[in-house]
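Box 3.1 A note on notation
Throughout this textbook, protein chains are presented in two layers. The first layer is the amino acid sequence; the second is a token string describing backbone geometry. Keep the layers aligned when reading.
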Amino acid sequence: MEVIKMPIRIQSINNMNLFLLPNNIHPQAEHYNVFQADDGVILFIPVHDTEK
């Protein structure tokens, strides 16, 4: 597994915060659960069909 690390910026549009992914990151799921840790780390975990 290759780990890709690169800075991204948050864009605010219509009272929402958007993370724009670089073209070399290819999401493999349609839905994600999002978590934020106490230290500010944000995790996007894919939701599998059985979890919806």
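The radius of gyration is 13 Å. The beta strands are 10-13, 16-19, 32-36, 42-46.
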